[in-house]
């Protein structure tokens, strides 16, 4: 009964593809497809055009690994960015999150993942050599390791720190602790102990 068709093959295919988008499942995909069909002129046609244009133009920045429609990306070629400050992230989604917070006027380096021996991900699978090359080229005085607070993230951070031991660059990492608006009672012990260790003068 679950493979009973509800619409023609074109609509079925649309639903199947939408269901592969993170955050959507089959139910949300059907709702999204139906919504687009109802808003054909205002939403479906412009979305199709935007998807086509993006898929034709999207490229990976040869300097930092960011995605953009130009290479070097808009961030790497922005002269207002502080060239001495480099933020290392695991994924483009982390870069976007930091840009949304817009606290640092820095440039980035996207690793493309984390070291994970169990999954067969080694240093050569990540953009680590290009990171070392960027630091070796000079001009960068601080490297902020904005990796996730996971075992893999921290392992990757230690590996990078080792690789850069011979360079005159200050390596910092994100503080771990109580989220803004967070209640202590709801925090796990790891977060609480990290927050205590990273306490600051009141
Ligand atoms: Zn770039």
Q: Which value, in Å, is the CA radius of gyration? A: 22 Å
Strand order of the largest sheet: 4-3-5-6
Q: Catalogue the unreliable spans.
A: none
Q: What share of the residues does DSSP label as strand, in percent?
A: 5-15%
Helix content bin:
40-55%
* Structure class: alpha/beta
CATH topology of the largest domain, by name, is: Dna Topoisomerase Vi A Subunit, Chain: A, domain 2
Bound ligands, named by name, code or SMILES = zinc ion
Our count of domains comes out at 2
- CATH top level of the largest domain is Alpha Beta
Distance between the termini: 63 Å
Give an account of the 3D structure:
The protein is α/β, with parallel strands linked by helices. The protein folds into 2 domains: 9-57, Helicase, Ruva Protein, domain 3 (Orthogonal Bundle), CATH 1.10.8.420; 67-173, Dna Topoisomerase Vi A Subunit, Chain: A, domain 2, CATH 3.40.1360. The protein has 7 helices and 6 strands. It has helices at 9-18, 26-38, 40-57, 92-101, 129-136, 151-163, 189-197; strands at residues 59-60, 67-68, 85-89, 107-110, 142-145, 170-173. Strands 4-3-5-6 form a 4-stranded parallel β-sheet. Strands 1-2 form a two-stranded antiparallel sheet. β5 (142-145), α6 (151-163) and β6 form a beta-alpha-beta unit. The radius of gyration is 22 Å and the shape is globular. The N and C termini lie far apart (63 Å). The mean pLDDT is 92. The chain binds zinc ion (ZN). The site of zinc ion (ZN) has 8 residues, from loops.
């Amino acid at each position: 009964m679950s493979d009973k068709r509800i619409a023609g093959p074109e609509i079925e295919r649309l639903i199947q593809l939408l269901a592969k988008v993170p955050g959507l499942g089959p139910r949300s995909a059907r709702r999204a497809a139906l919504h687009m069909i109802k808003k054909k002129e205002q939403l479906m046609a412009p979305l199709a055009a935007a998807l086509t244009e993006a898929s034709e133009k999207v490229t990976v920045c040869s300097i930092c690994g960011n995605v953009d429609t130009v290479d070097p990306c808009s961030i790497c070629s922005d002269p207002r960015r502080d060239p001495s400050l480099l933020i290392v992230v695991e994924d483009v989604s982390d870069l976007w999150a930091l840009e949304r917070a817009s606290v640092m006027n820095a440039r980035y380096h996207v690793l493309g993942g984390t070291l994970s021996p169990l999954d067969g991900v080694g240093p050569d699978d990540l953009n680590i050599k290009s990171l070392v090359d960027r630091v070796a080229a000079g001009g960068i005085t601080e490297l902020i390791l904005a990796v996730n607070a996971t075992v893999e993230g921290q392992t990757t951070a230690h590996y990078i720190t080792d690789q850069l031991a011979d360079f005159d660059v200050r390596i910092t990492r994100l503080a771990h602790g109580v989220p803004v608006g967070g209640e202590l009672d709801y925090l796990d012990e790891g977060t609480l102990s990290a927050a205590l260790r990273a306490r600051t003068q009141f």
